[in-house]
UniProtKB/TrEMBL annotation:
<dbReference type="InterPro" id="IPR013830">
    <property type="entry name" value="SGNH_hydro"/>
</dbReference>
<dbReference type="Pfam" id="PF13472">
    <property type="entry name" value="Lipase_GDSL_2"/>
</dbReference>
<dbReference type="GO" id="GO:0016787">
    <property type="term" value="F:hydrolase activity"/>
</dbReference>
<feature type="domain" description="SGNH hydrolase-type esterase">
    <location>
        <begin position="178"/>
        <end position="365"/>
    </location>
</feature>
<keyword id="KW-0378">Hydrolase</keyword>
<dbReference type="InterPro" id="IPR053140">
    <property type="entry name" value="GDSL_Rv0518-like"/>
</dbReference>
<protein>
    <submittedName>
        <fullName>SGNH/GDSL hydrolase family protein</fullName>
    </submittedName>
</protein>
<dbReference type="InterPro" id="IPR036514">
    <property type="entry name" value="SGNH_hydro_sf"/>
</dbReference>
Length: 377
């Protein structure tokens, strides 16, 4: 059986210098960073992808190891192995650089929790990061990459310096990329429970899998939290090894954050042109493109996000997504979670509480709304 490197986990990252990011920049020095990665797919070997994409200085990783996670920050005894880079135990990433580790001959399966430990001996400066991974990371003093547990570690709720894991999987394994905003990243679902929409969709699939490139706060047309969707499409979708399909959910932040910031929100024509451009680029790359309607958010607790004008644009764009024929298929996320008596609002039992993001049951409703025939994985 021929195997090839295939994406089994992805994490969209932000620049710490962006003034609009949700969290204060964070750096490390003389510390070990242990982070948990929940695999969407499996294979007979793995490699870990590290990044210094937005760093302002070289990033020195003096030691790195990967293991199966037992619980919390504890690893399963006998499963840890060193990560090497071109045969070396240490690697330095220049600002903007990224690197894949050498292959680790460890078979893993979908649903596995990996613990990746990095020893960072020098000042990293503000770290390239994912702001809402919904998974706890652990920071310990000194070189603790081989420690089975980190009882005195600081807990953090962002992910740093990691963009993914690839596995050696059978050639032809199909991978869908969930490319969008917080509705894909998982905001509103239970921390540490792996109940994001892509996780729950994976539970329905008999073969192939979905990797998550959602980024909370991300816009389709304008840089806000991270590069906008059109700008990051090549990096976060087309460069994903094994990608065959892309699922889309964008537009809420273009409308809502634009209003909240006092900017002119995009028109329906602006957004539909952006979606059409994404669809064209996906098809040109040979991907099946699955559009998604923007979820409801009437009465959201976030000031300035819900406006009558914005709701008009959302309805118009959703109608276009459903009927334009631009996409190979469409998932009606809005219908899946809407309150039937008030369709611009999330159904109360599917609402996380902020009237903008679905809860665990809402994420399940989104996953259940996907016709698996669309994916053909």
């Amino acid at each position: 059986m021929t195997t090839t490197w295939t994406a089994a986990f992805r994490s969209a990252v932000l620049s710490p210098a962006e003034s609009f990011s949700f969290k204060e920049p964070r750096g490390f020095a003389g510390q070990t960073l242990r982070q948990i990665l929940h695999l969407d797919g499996g294979g007979e070997a793995l490699r870990v992808l590290l990044t210094n994409r937005f760093g302002d200085r070289p990033l020195v990783v003096a030691a790195a190891r990967v293991a199966l996670r037992k619980s919390g920050g504890e690893i399963l005894p006998g499963t840890d192995a060193p990560l090497t880079f071109g045969g070396a135990a240490e690697v330095t990433l220049a600002p903007g650089a990224e690197v894949a580790s050498d292959a680790v001959p460890q078979a893993v399966s979908a649903g596995t929790d990996l613990a990746v430990s990095l020893y960072l001996p020098e000042e990293t400066g503000p770290a390239t990061y994912s702001h809402t991974p919904l998974e706890t990371g652990y920071v310990a003093e000194g070189d603790a990459v081989s420690a089975s547990s980190l009882p005195a570690a600081e807990e953090v709720d962002s992910r740093f310096f990691i963009t993914g894991v690839d596995v050696l999987a059978p050639e032809g394994t199909a991978v869908a990329v969930a490319f969008g905003d917080s509705w894909f990243e998982g905001a509103g679902t239970t921390h540490g429970a792996n109940l994001r929409f892509p996780n729950l969709l994976n539970a329905r699939l008999e073969r192939g899998w979905v990797v998550n490139q959602g980024l909370g706060g991300n816009r389709l047309l304008t840089d806000e939290v991270g590069l906008h969707g059109l700008a990051r499409f090549d990096r976060d979708v087309l460069s994903v090894p094994g990608a065959t399909h892309v699922l889309l959910h964008f537009g809420l932040n273009d409308i809502g954050l634009g209003s909240a910031n006092g900017d002119r929100p995009p028109s329906a024509d602006d957004l539909t042109a952006g979606f059409a451009e994404l669809a064209r680029r996906a098809r040109d790359a040979g991907l099946t493109v699955i559009g998604g309607t923007m979820g409801p958010y009437l009465g959201t607790i976030y000031p300035g996000v819900d406006t009558p004008e914005g709701q008009v644009v959302r309805r118009a764009v959703n109608d276009w997504i459903r009927t334009s024929g631009v996409f190979d298929a469409v998932v009606d996320y809005a219908h899946a979670v809407a309150d039937p008596g008030q369709p611009d609002a999330i159904r109360p039992d599917l609402d996380s509480g902020d009237h903008l993001h679905p809860n665990d049951a809402g994420a399940q409703a989104m996953a259940d709304a996907v016709d698996l025939a669309f994916l053909r994985l």
